[in-house]
Design a protein that fits this description.
By secondary structure, the chain is of the alpha/beta class. It is built from nine helices and 13 strands.
């Protein structure tokens, strides 16, 4: 059934006049009359009856109008609806945060202050692929979206201030095989990477406690409950009277954050702007990660 004929029918039904309807929708009257005639033929009923010089809906016409008018109204609204949805999508940024929660949350908060109408949808799910940006610490080089390095920070070991080791600021990771660990679970990927380092040295770390609260980690390490892998640039330098930070001997332990860009970013000025903003913010702070502690 031709949509244009339905729109013509609704226009005629509202004005109850071919002449007025033709003027309202800017269509020649003969073309409008022909469209209504063909619609009558297609349906096999008369939709209008003539009353003097005017026309009225027939009983079948009234029934048809009650069903068709809402559909035509919805069709007429579609450009507006789609325009609004397109505008909303263009200022919506979908971010999958698999690592780097601390810096990215600050970046999102600051950007929202500057662009309050931006909608931020956040995920923390490796199975999600409907994102505009993904921040991860694992890049296997096989993803459909190439990753760029956002930052690289040395991973140190936080131990109680009175911990005795052969060097003031250096420790062999294998020497920690009998020690308890406090696992920082603000990112599952951080735990996975640091525990993988231990496994590469031939032992599985004995995790006494897992937490995503950095202050809890500080208190537990300072109390001698266990050691913890530490990012001084991201989490700050602990109180030296309670905790000391050790470099790990003969291992290049680094916490790298990668950024992937989804295909929709370049199609949206707002998405593209936030992507660039994120890259710039990390560039300004990454040097602190490597010098802290």
């Amino acid at each position: 059934m031709d949509i244009l004929r339905l729109q013509y029918f609704v226009a005629v039904a509202k004005s109850q006049s071919m002449t007025k309807a033709a003027e309202a929708i800017h269509v020649a009257q003969p073309a409008l009359s022909q469209a209504i005639r063909r619609l009558n033929e297609e349906l096999g009923v008369k939709l209008f009856i003539r009353v003097g010089r005017n026309i009225r809906l027939s009983e079948m016409g009234k029934l048809f109008y009650s069903e068709v008018a809402p559909l035509v109204r919805k069709l007429d609204e579609m450009p507006y609806i789609l325009g609004n949805e397109n505008e909303l999508q263009n200022r919506t940024v979908n971010i999958n945060i698999l690592a780097g929660q601390y810096p990215i949350i600050d970046i999102i908060s600051d950007y929202k202050k500057q662009h309050p109408d931006t909608v931020m949808n956040l995920f923390q799910d490796e199975s999600v692929d409907d994102w505009d940006m993904e921040i991860t610490a694992i890049d296997d080089g096989c993803h459909q979206y190439p990753a760029q390095v956002l930052s690289s920070e040395k991973i140190r070991l936080a131990v109680p201030a009175d911990y005795v080791c052969s060097s003031d600021n250096l420790i062999d990771l294998i020497d920690m095989r009998e020690e308890n660990f406090i696992a920082v679970d603000d990112s599952r990927q951080f735990s996975y990477i640091t525990e993988s380092y231990c496994l590469s040295e031939g032992f599985e770390p004995e995790v006494a406690y897992r937490t995503s609260d950095i202050n809890e980690v500080k208190k537990l390490v300072g109390a001698g409950i266990g050691a913890a892998f530490w990012l001084a640039g991201t989490w700050g330098i602990p109180d030296a009277s309670a905790i000391k930070l050790l470099d790990i001997q003969d291992m290049d332990l680094a916490w790298k954050l990668y950024l992937r860009k989804g295909f929709r970013v370049d199609e949206s000025p707002r998405k593209s702007d936030f992507f660039s903003y994120t890259v710039d913010r990390f560039a300004k702070t990454s040097r602190l990660y490597n010098t802290a502690g």
